[in-house]
Write a structure and sequence with these properties.
This protein has 163 residues and is of the alpha+beta class. The chain has helices spanning 18-32, 39-46, 52-60, 98-112, 127-132; strands at 8-12, 62-68, 71-79, 83-89, 117-123, 136-145, 148-158. Bound molecules: coenzyme A (COA).
Length: 163
Amino acid sequence: MGQTLPKPGLRPFLPDDVPVLAAIFAASIEELTGDDYNEAQQQAWMEAAETEEFGKRLAADLTLIATLEGSPVGFASLQGADHIRMLYVHPAVSGQGIATMLVDALEKLAGGRGAKSLSVDASDTAQGFFAKRGYVAMQRNSITVNDEWLANTTMKKTLGASQ
Ligand SMILES: CC(C)(COP(=O)(O)OP(=O)(O)OC[C@H]1O[C@@H](n2cnc3c(N)ncnc32)[C@H](O)[C@@H]1OP(=O)(O)O)[C@@H](O)C(=O)NCCC(=O)NCCS
């Protein structure tokens, strides 16, 4: 008999989750974005989790946590009604549909908040993931993070009646 993979769960963010989410954030940048950003850029991006602002944003946004057997393995956050601010999945479980589950849920929540469309400033690493879900590139951005320039792409999806 084949082994059954544990089923992922979803739950809301709690203030005590900040350290584990900071660890997922750093691991995901370090191990998954190396083809798209150089080491100095990755380092600057990872350091964002060491600021007080990181926890404040998670608490201010509607943040969802994906779990496997009760442990957080990824998270995503909705800023206001119509902007995905964060989406990070632990490299140990990437490619298993965790981000899909998180973004499915955020699209429904955005629809519930009255959003007609949803936007994201997608990293170059995540651009293919969002394109596959119907997000369309609108503009290219260069942002400074801890004195490093990082490129991303504003992408937008119109939310349909099914969301
Ligand atoms: C982008 C990211 C969130 C994807 O998470 P994931 O849990 O591995 O994604 P899923 O398993 O749900 O992938 C769903 C589909 O998208 C595809 N996909 C995932 N990442 C992709 C990528 N970089 N390019 C193209 N397709 C991608 C998968 O192949 C899968 O396709 P399938 O359904 O045909 O098998 C993850 O790679 C990550 O955390 N990256 C680093 C941090 C980052 O850049 N975050 C985004 C900030 S905006």
